[in-house]
Structure formats: C-alpha cells, structure tokens
Amino acid sequence: MRFSSIIVGSMLAVAATCASHGETGDSVRGRQEDMKTMSMAAKQLSGYFSGKRTYDVDDFIASAKEISARSGNRLSARFTTDIAAEGSNASPSIIDDRTKFDALARDLERYSRQVADSAKGGDMLPPEMKMRSGEVLEGGPFARKKANADIASFSSEHAFHMMLQTCTACHAAFRLKRQ
Ligand code: HEC
Q1: Residue nearest to atom 33 of ligand 1 (CA)
Q2: 3-state secondary structure of 90
Q3: CATH number of 2-174
Q4: Mind listing the pLDDT tens digit for each residue in 117-130?
Q5: Which is it for the CA torsion 105, 106, 107, 111, positive or negative?
Q6: Ligand 1 atom closest to the CA of 83, numbered from 1
Q7: CA-CA distances (angstroms) from residue 24 to 57, 63, 159?
Q8: How far away, in angstroms, is 89 Cα from ligand 1 center?
Q9: What is the pLDDT of residues 156-168, one digit of tens each?
C-alpha cells in the first residue's frame, strides 16, 4: 500500500513539472495527456486499496479501464513518430528496442485489465481483491514472465502492483531524465 502510494505520488510530481512546454506538437501533447490520465487513474485506484477512498466498484473499474484503454496498441502507436521531438522526454532507445517497448505496453494492458476483471462489488473493497500472502513473494522486478493464464488468477491488488512496476520499468528504460 505504502509502496504503491509512493510510486504514484512520485509520478504525479513528475506530471506537475511537465505542465508547460514551448513548441510541443500535437502527437507529443497527446501521448503526455494519456500518461497524465493514467497517472490520475492509478492514484484513484491506490486510494481504493489503501482505504482512503470510499469504495465504489463502478468507479474502480472505470479507473482501471482509463489505463487499459491507453495501453497496448494505443500506447505503442503513440510512440511511432516524434520520438526526439521538442518538449518530449521519449528516449531514442524506443526506436532501437521497439520489441521491448511494445511488450511493456502490452503488459500494462494485461495487468490493468486484470485489475478491472477481478473487481467485485461491496460497501468496502472486498478482501478477495487484496493481495494474497503467496503473491508477495511472486512479484518484484525479477519475477518470471507471467503467462496470460497466470495473470487471470492474480488478485486485483497484485495486478495493480505489477501494473505500477510496468509503468516504472518503461520509464527507467525509455523516458529521458529531466535536467
Ligand atoms: C511502454 C512504456 C510506458 C509505460 C508502460 C508507461 N509509460 Fe509513462 N511515459 C513513457 C514515456 C516514453 C514518457 C515520455 C513521453 C514524452 O514526453 O513524449 C512517459 C511519460 C509519463 C508521464 C509524464 C507526462 C508529461 O506530462 O510529460 C507520466 C505522468 C507518466 N508517463 C505516467 C505513467 C503511468 C502512471 C504509467 C502506468 C499506469 C505509465 N506512465 C506507463 C512511457 C511509458
């Protein structure tokens, strides 16, 4: 919980510093908007898991879908042009390592879909959506690559953590550091 809110918090801090750019073109602005929308949605979800936000399954699912709708092919397509463009922090390594970039975009889709698919109704976030004890050990950046069938058995919270790790992994590899 703590871990995920720290990650989400630092992403929002990044979004806040990205407000103004000089001659940023539409394609760059469009993908940065998508990223900011995903960041807000991740913050909402984090609030539900931590109990800070009053649980509402419809809003929970809608937030997860804000992310899945901007992942996968749509995310990949957002980064086919204007990689080294004005106002963009996209790394040229996206061009060199397209396969890895596209795989991370697909992972984001698979995990965010599972966050939504495993959501259940209730007055409070149902316990079965929480991370199970075995899952804590499975996760982490060095975990074996998961097949779709494995992901379908993830608790919502575990899928959420894996989703956040996918954001972080892609940024580490493909987003330039701000000066
Ligand atoms: C497949 C790679 C990839 C994934 C996955 C990814 N991002 Fe990004 N993200 C990028 C790149 C590249 C940029 C820099 C875009 C640019 O400046 O043109 C970026 C930029 C951002 C920004 C700054 C936007 C701005 O206004 O400049 C935020 C915030 C962000 N991402 C949040 C997220 C969140 C939250 C997730 C996960 C839910 C996520 N990203 C998943 C690649 C990714």
Answers
A1: 35
A2: strand
A3: 1.20.120.10
A4: 999 999 999 999 99
A5: positive
A6: 18
A7: 37, 27, 34
A8: 9
A9: 999 999 999 999 9
Q: What does the pLDDT look like over 74-96, one tens digit per residue?
A: 999 999 999 989 999 999 999 99
Nearest CA to ligand 1 atom 8: 35
Q: Please name every residue paired with 75 in a beta bridge, in sequence order, or none if there are none.
A: none
| Cα separation of the two ends of the chain | 30
What is the token pair recorded at 174?
């493909």
Distance between Cα 58 and ligand 1 center (Å): 25
Distance (angstroms) between ligand 1 centre and the Cα of 121 equals 30
Dist CA 120 CA 148 (whole Å): 20
Structure tokens at 20: 């103004």
Q: Of ligand 1's atoms, which has the minimum distance to the CA of residue 39?
A: 35
Length of the chain: 179
Residue 46 amino acid letter: S
175 in helix, strand or coil?
strand
Exposure on the CB side of residue 42, measured as CA atoms within 13 A: 33
Residues 150 and 135: beta-carbon distance below 8 Å: no
Residue 25 contacts residue 90 (beta carbons within 8 Å): no
Select from 36, 160, 172, 170 the least CA-distant residue to 106: 170
Binding site membership of 64 for ligand 1 (Cβ less than 6 Å): no
Check pocket membership of 8 for ligand 1, CB cut-off 6 A: no
